[in-house]
Amino acid sequence: MERLVSSDAPAVSTDAPEVGSDVPGVGSDAPERTTAQRPPTARQLFGALPRRRPARPPGTVLALRTPLRGRTRTVLVLSSVALPLLTWLLLGATGAVDPRFLPPPGAVWAAGVEMAGSGELFTDAWATVRRILYGYGLGVAVAVPLGVAMGSFAAARSALEPVSGLLRYLPAAAFTPLLLIWLGIGEAPKIALIFVGTVFFNMLMVADAVRQVPIDLVNVSYTLGARGGEVLRKVILPYALPGIVDAVRVNFAAAWGLVVVAELVNSQEGLGKRILLAQRFTQTDKIFAILVVIGLIGVTADIVLRITRDRLGRWVP
């Protein structure tokens, strides 16, 4: 039986499309990802590290985030105080600087003893400390609750953070004329200046300390059946308390700068007022003595707040 094939049947082409044809996605016209289009690697951006011998482990002093030994730490702390003092002694002994501009330590000590003997140093120091306790204490009493609310609740953060972020950039000293107009020339404007200059910084720093509480602790507390108020009192506040104390400690230095500015305006007593009177008669030895007293009071307060922070935060890792 013969197999008949019609000549009219269409021939089947067996030719495959060649490279470079017009078939979409095939050929030289298709977009190719070249080396220039690829994102650069870290080696291309920063270069390869040179080959080195294995590095020796750094010593205790140069090791990153490594606690120092007790003796090493003591030596460094004492050196940080002794070196500036020795430099001051040498400049005063050699007369390299005019004593009117940099009095020697002996003259500063004598001026301090003189003011202490007359009683004016203690009177002025207590007046300054009292103003700080009122102004800064009021600022802390307002800033801590608001900062805790900003760090705990998104609604409080949205409502308070923009205005506090704006006001903290305004120089507090610029409010002095307004405070004198609004509150008179007594103690009120001095206390208000310290309050205005510190409350907004404390608010934001307290809020940051509260936001450092791990969210896992909050979620676990809810899982165990705690309510919102219990989580705030028993989880968030205890964990954030050392950070809150640290924020108060850091901003305490700003209160000292503001109280000196406040006492330059219509004050009858205070360390700032005493500095202004000494400046009128070019008594730089008294000015340095008062600055030393301010530094000693500030360091004492800083140490007390550090100890308080460490004792309150024993459970915080």
TrEMBL record:
Residue intervals passing through the bilayer: 75-97, 133-154, 166-185, 191-210, 287-307
The answer to whether UniProt assigns keyword Transport to this entry is yes
Q: What residue spans carry the region label Disordered?
A: 1-42
Gene3D superfamilies referenced in this protein's UniProt entry, alphabetically: MetI-like
Q: Which InterPro entries match?
A: MetI-like, MetI-like_sf
Membrane topology according to the record: Multi-pass membrane protein
Instruction: Give the Pfam families listed for this entry.
Output: BPD_transp_1
The listed locations are: Cell membrane
Tell me the keywords, alphabetical order: Cell membrane, Membrane, Transmembrane, Transmembrane helix, Transport
- What positions does the domain ABC transmembrane type-1 occupy? 125-305
Which positions make up the signal peptide? none
Q: Which PROSITE patterns match?
A: ABC_TM1
Tell me the protein family, please. Belongs to the binding-protein-dependent transport system permease family.
* Protein name as catalogued: ABC transporter permease
Its encoding gene is what?
ssuC_7
